[in-house]
Amino acid sequence: MNKFISPLAILALSLCAFTTESSAQASGVKPELIMYRHNGGGISPAPAAAGNVLGTIKWNALTAIGNIRTGASIKSIAETVAPGVLTSNMVFSTSGLLGNTDRAVITSTGLVGIGTMSPGFHLDVLGNTHTSGRFYGRIHFDADEPTDLPSSYIDEAYFERKSRAQLGLAANTYANGGILTMAPGGGGLDRQLFSGGDDGLWTRSQDGSGANTWAAWQKILTSTDINGNVGRLPRFTGANLGDPSSTLGNSQLFDDGTHVGIGTTSPDAASLLTIAGNTRINGNTFSNGNIGIGLAPTANRLEVLGASRFNGNTSVGGNLNVDLSASVDGSLQVDGNGRVDGILVVGNPVSIPGNHELYVNGSVIAEEIWVKLQGSWPDYVFEQDYRLTPLTEVETFILENKHLPGVAPASEVAQDGISVGDIQKTQMEKIEELFLHMIALEKRVKELEVENATLKAGRK
Asked: Which residue range forms the structural domain that includes residue 283?
């Protein structure tokens, strides 16, 4: 019996050898191509062992006469062998310039490694990865740390579905959303990005006090929050958001790139700055061009339509035109023409009596002052119908009133002041009257001289 079986075994081995050198084919309802690994030979072969190659499929080619090379292969290597138990992997190899090299593996537990023969994950790729389709699951970025696991949330980015309530975000029409966590590792803080509601994107950072402690959520501003009109400079609105605010809106400033307006979106085309409303300047102000407050400036360096107040020194290098009252608490220097259409007060008088255009609390010095009276000059004294008050009446008036007729008394001047124009007119009136009295006196003197000469001639 043993002698009969040995030739059959030899024949079977020969057939196997023949099939490896020729093409192999399996057909039928359930075709199979089986590779059977055992150790030893004869009638009682030994079991396979861990590390044994269970079988190899090779793709060979004749590269030259007498030279055959393997281009690619698939092999299976046993990992665990025990009675009734066999675990093994599958290794894929290709041939490069340096020969046949293992490229990928599927382990007995279903882990797939590409570029590594010891995968630690269901898909473990050593090298760059690219996909043109959809990817579902966690992306783990390994910074050369093979022991770094996804559950540690280090050196990775991962996507999760979360509810706003879980994350501490305000309630929204859409309760759920997606959160992207980026964990750079290497001592860096994790950062999260949340989207899913109709209120935009939110972000927060790990605060560093613990592995799973986070700073407050911050909203990423969008066009819904950042809006305004063209040319209007923005400001933080914060009307209902508290202080500080993350909402922007229009301010009172307008800038079209050429002209600037405050309180107006239509600045004057001839001015760099247009202010629509009251303006207060507590410090020094310098301008190389004309300034108009309340109106567009014409030929004057400074033109003010309305009441004005300057708390410091004011210097105007050109003409000054103020249509109403102006108040300067410091010095005022005008290098050009000055025009005030209202009341001008210099100094700090105790009161401003009457209705005058100029009030000065202090002395005034000038090389020349012109007073142009609106009424008639006292040349009427020389008219024929003018009644020249006799000196006896003037004497009686002086004795009774202690001042000249037609001249304000000292008490009135002390209380109300006196008009320079009026006093000049009154003085001229009295001078002209004096001249009339002197002319009359001179005539009387000449008449007396004639009478005296006649009397002297009669005595002789």
From this structure: 278-365
Please check whether residues 31 and 123 belong to one and the same domain: yes
- Please provide residue 72's backbone torsions phi and psi, each rounded to the nearest 5 degrees: -160, 160
Residue in this structure with the two tokens 């003409």, named with its chain if needed:
319
CA angle 327, 330, 333 (to 5 degrees): 90
| 361 and 421 fall within a common domain | no
Backbone angles phi, psi at 103, to 5 degrees: -110, -40
Number of domains in the chain: 3
In-domain check, residue 33: yes
Tell me the HSE value of 3 on the side-chain side, using a 13 A CA sphere: 0
Q: Residue 80 in contact with residue 86, Cβ under 8 Å?
A: yes
pLDDT tens-digit readout, 104-162: 999 999 999 999 999 998 888 888 888 888 776 666 555 555 444 445 555 677 777 88
User: Tokens representing 370?
Assistant: 């012109």
Tokens 């050429």, located at residue: 258
pLDDT digits (tens, 9 = 90+) for 260-302: 999 899 888 888 888 888 777 777 777 777 777 767 677 677 7
Mean pLDDT of 399-419: 87
